[in-house]
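thought: user wants a sequence for this fold. calling inverse folding tool.
action: design(structure=
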């Protein structure tokens, strides 16, 4: 290859690269808009295929999702009211216990001995009161002597009741029905009011606690129904609002609300995260269209209706909005055919063909 031919090829390649760079920077034609313009210009020939829905009454609700948590209806750390060595543990960890069931006991032998001693004195004290009453009727003793023996009997009975109360404090009983957790003591260990024996949790019903943003606080009413779901579960559960905090949190500007769920099967364990669906407003007979069907134009919402084979725009007023749908308050009527696809290509009077109508 001679030298001139070689440099000619190099120059040709460089020119091709420069030309390609200039072409790549030129503005490209918007295919979608070009297609729309072509359809508009060719109304007599081409048409636009669209999908539509027939406006009919249906339910729509304004809902918000709020993070919450499951709380036990009641929960307590169990401990003895007195001190002493634990001599009995009568429960199995993680099982259901009934209210009043004896769970554990500390040594009460000294108290039992005192009780037996005092009880043995009751008969003698009662006899003294009886004899003194007979003597009083015969004026053989003074009223003061009679009152003294009555006082001695009453004091003895009070001492017995005190010992019985102390014995009750050596017994740890379930304050309510629930599931008892893991124990923190063993037989032979020394118990005191500061030592937690186990945790008792009432799992039916449970409380659903969530915080409502300030702007929604007026929508929360006592007795209102809420729907919630649990992490990792598809099923939804229904609870009823029974209480709310007395004021709005000044830091988070939210109002804490609690709802009650019966939890009869015990599936909703306390401590789980919950997603609460709060229904602010519900309309049963509403006209609802997909949000994609609405075309905003100069601050006005428009819909395209199918009339005699052509697209006709109408101004509408929207109401409630969800993540997918919009309620139409004014502008269309029940039975109107609303075009829900290809809205960006629609023009007034454009011929359309309905591929699917729901």
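)
observation: tool returned 358 residues.
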């Amino acid at each position: 290859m001679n030298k001139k031919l070689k440099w000619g090829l190099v120059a040709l390649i460089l020119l091709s690269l420069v030309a390609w760079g200039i072409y790549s920077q030129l503005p490209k034609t918007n295919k979608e808009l070009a297609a729309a313009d072509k359809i508009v210009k060719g109304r007599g020939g081409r048409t636009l295929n669209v999908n539509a829905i027939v406006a009919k009454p249906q339910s729509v609700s304004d809902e918000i999702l709020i993070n919450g948590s499951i709380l036990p209806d009641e929960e307590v750390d169990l401990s003895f009211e007195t001190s002493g060595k634990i001599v009995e543990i009568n429960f199995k960890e993680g099982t259901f216990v009934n209210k009043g069931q004896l769970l554990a006991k500390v040594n009460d032998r000294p108290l039992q001995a005192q009780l037996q001693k005092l009880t043995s004195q009751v008969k003698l004290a009662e006899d003294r009161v009886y004899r003194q009453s007979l003597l009083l009727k015969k004026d053989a003793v003074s009223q003061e002597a009679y009152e003294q023996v009555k006082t001695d009997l009453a004091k003895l009975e009070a001492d017995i009741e005190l010992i019985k109360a102390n014995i009750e404090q050596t017994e740890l009983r379930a304050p309510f029905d629930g599931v008892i957790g893991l124990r923190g003591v063993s037989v032979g260990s020394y118990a005191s009011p500061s030592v937690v024996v186990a945790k008792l949790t009432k799992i039916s019903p449970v409380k659903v606690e969530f915080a409502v943003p300030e702007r929604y606080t007026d929508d929360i009413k006592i007795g209102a129904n809420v729907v919630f779901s649990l992490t990792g579960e598809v099923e939804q559960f229904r609870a009823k609002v029974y209480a709310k905090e007395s004021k709005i949190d000044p830091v988070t500007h939210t109002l804490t609300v609690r709802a009650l769920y019966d939890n009869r099967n015990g599936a909703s364990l306390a401590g789980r995260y919950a997603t609460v669906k709060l229904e602010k407003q519900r309309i049963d007979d509403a006209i609802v269209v997909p949000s994609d069907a609405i075309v905003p134009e100069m601050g006005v919402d428009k819909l395209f209706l199918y009339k005699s084979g052509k697209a006709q725009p109408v101004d509408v007023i929207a109401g409630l909005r969800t993540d997918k749908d919009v309620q139409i308050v004014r502008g269309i009527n029940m039975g109107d055919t609303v075009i829900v696809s290809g809205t960006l290509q629609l023009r007034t009077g454009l011929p359309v063909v309905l591929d699917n109508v729901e």
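thought: summarizing for user.
answer: Here is the designed sequence. The first strand starts at residue 48 and ends at 54.
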